[in-house]
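Design review, sub-item: ligand-bound model
Attendees: FS, YL, KQ
YL presented the inputs for the NAP complex:
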Amino acid sequence: MAATRIDGKALAAKLKENVRAEAAVLPRKPGLAVILVGDDPASRVYVTSKRKDCEECGFYSEEYALPAETTQKQLLELVAELNGRADIDGILVQLPLPKGLDEREVLLAIDPTKDVDCFHPYNVGQLTIGTPIFQPCTPGGVMEMLREYHIDPAGKRCVVLGRSNIVGKPMALLLLHAHGTVVTCHSKTPDLKELAASADILVSAVGKTGLVTADMVKEGAVVIDVAMNRNQAGKLCGDVCFEEAAAKASYITPVPGGVGPMTRAMLMKNTLTAAKLHQGV
Ligand code: NAP
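KQ shared the predicted structure:
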């Protein structure tokens, strides 16, 4: 059986189009401020793509490119200023921050109603009890994909590889809230292969090229590859050995063109949600 490729690029374009239409009728444009500290080239690429997404969605956006020597105090002052701005609905601090800056304190300083990345402990708590303002962007994007392709996690065995705060943990929570039976695996999981092979829905968010081989994919499983790795040739790839997994799966996401574009689209959706909240719409 050849798997259906889940087209994240097309779905993200549709999602952004809907966001654009909703934003156009708001009294005020949604506004997103992106803060980048230091000169990490990968982070710079992400920030540029966020600006382009804002333009596509008709949002107002601001970028703060701060030098690596920026102090914690300066960063916190900028966050406080943006918290107080009526034209800014979302504040995104590009992670990781350079050494010496306290990421946790910075994320805590962001007004939770402007925390469009859904990293603030308040929003993580709301997510845990099932009443989130925002969907965490990457796992939220995965759930949108499942919905679009009529894949219902209810009653399914869902195995998540990875337990980071950004992807693995919130992914497991969203699948649990969608009534999946969820197993979360990590670097200390001894029987990873067997657990993965038992999954109806397998989500890999580890960051290791070639980790998920055909023997880890159950016949007919849905395979979601969150990872964004570089192979030896420098080409973007995921954790999953795509061709061999696709031969057994029912649905599979490619890398690139799968989860990545959905993450970006979800950030726009969250900024729209924040703008509606701030404008009482
Ligand atoms: P991370 O913070 O490094 O977390 C990786 C997780 O994988 C950890 O929980 C780690 O376990 C686990 N792990 C490491 N080796 C393992 C192994 N051999 N078997 C099982 N689990 C193992 O990474 P992340 O931020 O979650 O990102 C994961 C991947 O997703 C990366 O490739 C990243 O680039 C990608 N990503 C993609 C998007 C997107 O939009 N598509 C967004 C975010 C991240 P421990 O906890 O035990 O260390």
